[in-house]
Amino acid sequence: MPRTILHTPNEVKYPVCGYEYVNPVALKVEPVSDDTIGYINRDGLRTVPSHAAERIRGIQRTTTFLCEEAHQWDEVRAFHKGITSQAIECGPDWSDLECAPTTIWRD
Ligand SMILES: [Zn+2]
What we know:
Elements: E1 22-33, E2 36-41, E3 44-49, H1 52-55, E4 59-67, E5 71-80, E6 83-93
Antiparallel strand pairs: 1-2, 1-4, 2-3, 4-5, 5-6
The protein binds zinc ion (ZN).
């Protein structure tokens, strides 16, 4: 069945500097089960032991982005009791882009 596009996405930009060259550097889902989280970065997919279920009710998905001016931020969406909320958490700013995390995948 064809899907209906309700929204044509805009480019993601860092909300502070507005720079349009933005790279996804990590994706985290927590908890995946009572005692694990799922984490993806340039090294691949890992399932990591965690006590996330003790502090997170429902499920939370975090995408970490890095603009090419070395600003990093998290886009967090959390689901609990039928409500999905979202937040943007800024930082850190990297003084040296060479030290910052790199894109999950690039071909
Ligand atoms: Zn920036």
